[in-house]
Amino acid sequence: MKCLIIGAGPAGLSAAETLRKLSDRLEITVVDGERLLYARCQLPGVVAGRLIDDFRPPDFFTRNDIELIAGKRALFLWPDKPQVLLEDGGRLRFQVLLLATGARPRKLEIAGEDLRGVFRLNQYRDALHIARWEAGKAVVFGGGPVGVALAEALRDRGIPQVTLVVKASRLLAGQLDEQGAERVAKALSNRKIAMVFGQNPAQILGNKKVQSVGLEDGREFPADIVTAAKGVRANVSLALRAGTGIKVNPCFETDRKGVFAAGDCTWVRDALSGETVLPGAWSLAVEQGKRAAQGMFWRLRHPEGSWQESDLVPYGEPFTKQYAATIAGVPLVAAGLNTYPGEVQVWDAGRAYRRLVFRGDRLLGAVLMGDIAGAGVYNWLIRKGRELSRREKNALLRGEVFSLMLSGEPEQFCAK
After folding, report:
1. Distance CA 48, CA 138 (A)
2. Does residue 25 sit in the same domain as residue 54?
3. Residue where a domain stops, chosen among 228, 257, 290
4. What are 165-209's pLDDT values in tens digits?
5. DSSP 8-class letter at 170
6. Residue 316 lies in a domain
């Protein structure tokens, strides 16, 4: 029974590991276009000069009897037969297939984007090129998690002048409230990172090599290097060429039997906002990979079966936004819907900052900065929608999460 997985990120490797636990008789092959396997969230660290940590033990593939084909991209999935074409002309057959192809940075779609010295951070080699580029002035487009991390990484690399250009009115607009974003902006300003808000890039100027960037309002900033972090797109080309969509059912199968998808190449519904979004969360990709593997294993045993006949529990874990980082030495966690106009409570005591958003007796969003102890409890409460008493709300605001756990909620309460 042949299982093929395209993509060796968190979803792909989680699926491979789960399949092996389900059976030692499966033939499992993982294909990835890169030779080095790593977590993409580590790429800004590579720009800063830090080494990549293995997110799987070196003997992971041999110990689990999993074939790894690294450094070869999957180019084509036949719509009418179970085969995948690799870039070297090789063909791989499968009985079940998992697309775990992730996402890629969006193009800027402006003049000058192809000049030397303009980069998008997508792969390890991109991080190396950025790190090795000689520059005294850097401009970073995008004030989201990747843009902020890149700005810090460029300062860590020793570039004296770094400017963040952000279309929104504040940093991390999708994750933080205004007061929390102001704290982040102050921390970056203390690191000599300049910020321009309310602007998009209009053009990148230079003669073969970048020399400056022009903004929508006509201002121009000199630059020796430009990095773009303006959102991502799901890698769905394999699925589209095969005539299947990337939307999945609750067991992660696409509209083509035997073809599954998980991770950032899929779309999920945010349980709080109702929006359809790319998950963009490591923990969610891992969980989706596990659930997809269970679906693949069931499909192997029931090639023509209907999911209604299965004993699988459909994936139903509520998804909502979550973000964790350390910015200028300050730990930060944001979860849930922090822009909802509900009951807002703020704790601002020096280094520790907490902002909680409630809808009635349920926690809807949380921002924790400085002191992030018990962050998993806040996240669990947001996803589960557990009703809270006034005493419990006050305990959360003060950061006294362990008193809640002692009141009888217990192991699963702090498990996430």
Report:
1. 14
2. yes
3. 228
4. 999 999 999 889 899 999 999 999 999 999 999 999 999 999 999
5. S
6. no
Cβ contact 204:118 at 8 Å? yes
Domain count, the chain: 3
Q: Look-up: residue for tokens 């299965």? A: 310
Q: Mean pLDDT throughout 123-152?
A: 95
Domain match, 54 and 10 both: yes
Same structural domain, 246 and 222: no
pLDDT in tens, 64-99: 999 999 999 999 999 889 999 999 999 999 999 999
Q: How far apart are CA 31 and CA 5, in angstroms?
A: 6
Residue 138: inside a domain, yes or no? yes
Strand partners, 369: 332, 353
Q: Which residue has the higher pLDDT, 155 or 174?
A: 155
Kindly state whether residue 373 falls inside one of the protein's structural domains: yes
**pLDDT single digits (tens) 214-256:** 999 999 999 999 999 988 888 888 877 655 547 888 889 998 9
What is the C-alpha to C-alpha distance for residues 54 and 43, in angstroms, rounded to an integer? 13
Residues 224 and 124 grouped into a single domain = yes
Do 200 and 339 lie in one domain? The reply is no
Can you name the residues that pair with 366 across neighbouring β-strands?
335, 356
Tell me the residue range of the domain where 203 lies: 118-228
Q: Kindly tell me the burial class for residue 38, based on how many C-beta atoms sit within 10 Å of its own C-beta (0-12, 13-18, 19 or more).
A: buried
Transcribe 119-151 into DSSP letters. Answer: EE--SHHHHHHHHH---SEEEEE--SHHHHHHH
Which residue, among 221, 225, 38, 56, has the nearest Cα to 125 in the 3D structure?
38
Residue 317 domain-assigned (yes or no): no
User: 16-25, 151-160, 298-307 — which is least confidently predicted?
Assistant: 298-307
For residue 336, CA distances in Å to 111, 368, 372 come to 37, 12, 15
DSSP class of residue 414 equals G
Are residue 250 and residue 390 in the same domain, yes or no? no
For the record, the structure tokens of 383 come out as: 């996803």
- Rounded CA separation 366/353 (Å): 10
Please tell me which residue, 45 or 36, carries the higher pLDDT value: 45
Please report, for the domain that includes residue 163, its CATH number: 3.50.50.60
